[in-house]
TrEMBL record:
Organism: Rufibacter quisquiliarum
Name assigned to this protein: NAD(P)-dependent dehydrogenase (Short-subunit alcohol dehydrogenase family)
Coiled coil, from the record: none
Gene3D superfamilies xrefs: NAD(P)-binding Rossmann-like Domain
InterPro entries per record: NAD(P)-bd_dom_sf, SDR, SDR_fam
Homology family: Belongs to the short-chain dehydrogenases/reductases (SDR) family.
Amino acid sequence: MDNLVERQVALVTGGTKGIGKAIADNLSKAGMQVVVTARTAPKENTNGQYFISADLATPEGAERVAKEILGKYGRIDIIINNAGANLSPGGGFSALSDEHWNNDWQLNFMSAVRINKALLPTMIEQKSGVIINISTGAAKQPLWEMTMSYSSAKAALNVYSKALANEVGSKGIRVNVVSPGVVKTPLMLEFVENIAKSSSITPDEAFKALIDKVGVPMGRMAEPEEIANLVAFLVSSEAKYITGTNYSVDGGALPII
């Protein structure tokens, strides 16, 4: 973090909870001007981050965020596309309606596409910028009974990120992907509790079943800060020759090299 330039402007979508909050707080502590987005404002803002209320699953939400950032700061240096969630029910293909598929793709894929499209022209003009798209290990190791539409949307995000990195690399802009595994966030804990209720087991038993299903050699969830630390490195000057890469942070879960 010592090599991050103070007063850079960083956007963290979905930045009020879980992984997004950990990333935003990390960048704030480094001295950056951090903008966070979510549909609802956080209960407290202890790091002086600028909040924009927006639904990034809509074109209007992305346009409003970009317009407000450029109007206030006149520049954008870092984009962390973290907004995302597994919105659909489990149960495989037969449980998923067109609406489920559309909702997952709008939030987990199109939100990043729209934000990048709106802000990239400014980065290109500056001849510098870093984009980190937060994906998921489930994009490479999908669980059909839990994450089919979500995993598909994030897999598309991975391919898009590689293509974008190739397109804008010569313009001074780096694009990378961070793919967390099972992370201890409010959404994940709610997910575990729902598994417990539907299966008539305890939350501890549901957690163990999930870890066993995913196959996490380290035997625990990641802390949000462990994801944020990698993101902090990737946006720093220490990583200035790294682009077009997808980093797994999953406790060894992905069963391939």
